[in-house]
Amino acid sequence: MPPPAVWNMPPMAPTPGMPGMSMPMPEMHSAFYWGHRAQVLFRDWPGDRGDVGMYILCLVVVFALAALVEALSAAAKGVSSRRPAAVLAITGIHAVKMGLAYVVMLAVMSFNVGVLLAAVAGHTIGYLLARIGLFRRATPQDDAPRK
Description:
It is a multi-pass membrane protein. InterPro entries: Cop_transporter (IPR007274). The chain has 147 residues and is mainly α. It has helices at residues 52-77, 84-108, 113-131, 140-143, and strands at 38-39, 46-47. It is 50% helix and 3% strand. The longest helix is centred in the middle third of the chain and has 26 residues, at 52-77.
């Protein structure tokens, strides 16, 4: 069976005057690399200017987003009501959590090792804080005297 006719079409030549065709493409990494000159989530952020402070801010933002994903996960587990308002609240928390998780994933796809480490550390610290009960509601058993 011959391939579809679309596969046999010659490649399209760039049309003169098309916007964006003459712009230089940013460097895309296909393997992990070290360095503070990165492009994470947005064009020119944290930037290629050699500004280490913006790179550190980027790492802090990725860390905080990853920790927030874990905090939202713990918060959703704490609600076990079947009332419609509670179900809608849990659904909203889940939607925000998944959106943030995808943003963290896209940040890691910059292939910068620092961003990867910040994401893993954020998830770890967020999970740890959720497990030790920072986000847990107090129960009557917590107030009872221990023997």
